[in-house]
Amino acid sequence: MDRGDGSIRYILSGEGAGTMFTIDDNTGDIHAIQRLDREEKAQYVLRAQAVQRQTGMPLEPESEFIVKIQDINDNEPQFLDGPYRASVPEMSMTGTSVLQLTATDADDPTYGNSARVVYSILQGQPYFSVEPKTGIIRVSLPNMDREAKEHYELIIQAKDMGGQMGGLAGTTTVNITLSDVNDNPPRFPQKLYQMSVPESAPVGSVVGRVRAKDLDVGINAEMRYTIIDGDGRDTFDINTDPTNQVGIITIKKPLDFESKKSYTLKIEGANTHVDSRFLNKGPFSDVTIVHISVEDVDEPPKFDSSSYYVEVAEDVEIGTVFQIVSAKDPDISNNSVRYSIDRSSDRGKYFYIDLTSGALMPARPLDREEISWHNITVLAVEMTNPSQFGTVSVMVKVLDVNDNPPELAKYYDAFVCENTKAGQLIQTVTAVDLDDPLAGQHFYYSLAPEAANNPNFTLRDNQAKLTYSVSDNTAFILSRRGGFSQQEQSIYYLPILISDGDQPMQSSTSTLTIRVCSCDTDGNVMSCTAEPYTLPVSLSRGALIAILACIFVLLVMILLILSLRNYKKKPYLTDEEENVHENIVRYDDEGGGEEDTEAFDIAAMWNPREAQLSKIRQDMVPEIESLSRYVPQTCMGESNVHSYVLAKLYEADTDLCAPPYDSLQTYAYEGEGSVADSLSSLQSVSTNNDHDYDYLSEWGPRFKKLADLYGVSEANDVLW
């Protein structure tokens, strides 16, 4: 229908019309106006139609046709997941597969060789290789050692066109790491280690560390350290630090430099995970020797016992040794030790310890009823280094001695009815005793000897006769008669003798007060107050006043007589004499020096028995009782000197009237600055100047003797 005259116009529509393709409306030729890429779109569906140019009427139905893009080799192979990472165990055999690579080519695999890919290795030989068709990377060199080289970088190429000339190629990087296997046994860098530790280090302290080096890593380098031999196996221990794979040597038992100065340990370090494939490389363990020196430390004294327990009777005499504690310096120097008591544990100062021997003795009387247990702390101090001291606990149990008499348990408010009959129970009494005998307490009751024949009351001891369903250690007070009367006697005092059954027997007398009361027929008390007593009518008020006046005058006379006696005892002193200052202090318990043969004999300090037989001082009367009465009168040794001193100390502490043994007297009434100047003759010896003592005669009668001696002629000079 198209005659070429331009009356027909061609129209193109469909995929890519106007963008990728265009049509010549005169000729109907279709042209591509952009570069076509098969990998983006392999075909296009287009529609074309011829219409009348003038009217636009179609000349035929629309035609559809498909334009297919023919492939050319314009895309190189690509590794979409690269770069790659892989690992393979060291020492792997040749041919061990490491990783498979796949390259993608966008060209049409059905058309020619554009999409046929071949793999090759550009970098990484001779350690690894790649299969050309499959892309599998394999180990090509045996016995690769991680410790020598751990990381490898491979470059793999993929080329299309079957690897022929002109083919396109793509590359990727593969990083391969050799993973560790246990192919290296551990080795100690030293065969001998020298260590030291002070003997005062506590149990559990770290002495040192050892480490066996292992070139492997991770689980293949895990170690276990043990002590397999040596004389210190029982004294030291070794533990493995799982983090650093280090053997930590610690103390298992206390150290003592004086008993053992050094130890030797044989330590083994072994892998915990062994690979059987590499057993031929030797034992996966190693041993080393550790020599440990113990350093000497100045240690505090140590007691021969961790604690002491002793039982002491409460009647033990002061100064009696009841326990000897012993401590010694554990050092080689073996310094002397001195003992003392920690006073915070013995605030009552009940005990004394000998400074050098450690003998414990009571310093004051013990009383179980006051304190039954004493827990004292004894100190042992080095003489050369007081900062070093040891302590020990001494538990003292005070044993009971029957030293307390039984007494009535309480104050009894006893009464007897006026209508009481003979033999009627008045009161049940019981007693208490501070002592605690082993066999238990048993009391015996009786009336005091002065009341044995009491006509009013009697006592029945229930210890021997159990009546009225009453248990032991009680007694009944019974009426012996009836017909009591408040008018005759309202109160009766009944002395009761109570004794215990222990040795030595102790007894006491307690008085029971019994009131006479008015009671009803059932025995209930109605009144215990006697009717008021009225004075006779014949005694007037004036007579009572006269009696009181006489008593007052008598008291005044007695007071007057006493005041006159005190006045006579005071010596008469003139005003001049009262101005003279003198103090005369007399110590009757102190000797007068070597020439005083009447003074106190020092032998009394060693033997009180001889002190009693020695002659008594004749020039004065002792004002203080002998302080040796607490000292046992037996043959005394060195330890009994302590007993004597302790007894004197205790008596001085408890006697409020005794003077102190250490006194300081200040005489401030003569010397330079005073009216009399110095009375000493010491300075007069060192000077040749004559002294004029005439002023002594002006000082009164008290200095008359001195005035006579110093006031004579120069030929008779006398120096004091």
Automatic annotation (TrEMBL):
It comes from the Eukaryota. Its main location: other. Residues 2-79, 80-188, 189-303, 304-408, 408-534 form the Cadherin domain. It is found in: Cell junction, Adherens junction; Cell membrane. It holds the Pfam family Cadherin. The keyword Cell membrane applies. Keywords: Calcium, Cell adhesion, Cell membrane, Cleavage on pair of basic residues, Glycoprotein, Membrane, Metal-binding, Repeat, Signal, Transmembrane, Transmembrane helix. InterPro entries: Cadherin (IPR039808), Cadherin-like_dom (IPR002126), Cadherin-like_sf (IPR015919), Cadherin_CS (IPR020894), Cadherin_Y-type_LIR (IPR000233), Catenin-bd_sf (IPR027397). The chain crosses the membrane at residues 542-562. GO terms for cellular component: adherens junction; catenin complex. GO terms for biological process: adherens junction organization; calcium-dependent cell-cell adhesion via plasma membrane cell adhesion molecules; cell migration; cell morphogenesis; cell-cell adhesion mediated by cadherin; cell-cell junction assembly; homophilic cell adhesion via plasma membrane adhesion molecules; morphogenesis of an epithelium. GO terms for molecular function: beta-catenin binding; cadherin binding; calcium ion binding. It is a single-pass type I membrane protein. Cadherins are calcium-dependent cell adhesion proteins. They preferentially interact with themselves in a homophilic manner in connecting cells; cadherins may thus contribute to the sorting of heterogeneous cell types. PANTHER family: CADHERIN-20, CADHERIN-23. This is Cadherin-20. It comes from Polypterus senegalus (Senegal bichir). The lineage of its organism: Eukaryota, Metazoa, Chordata, Craniata, Vertebrata.
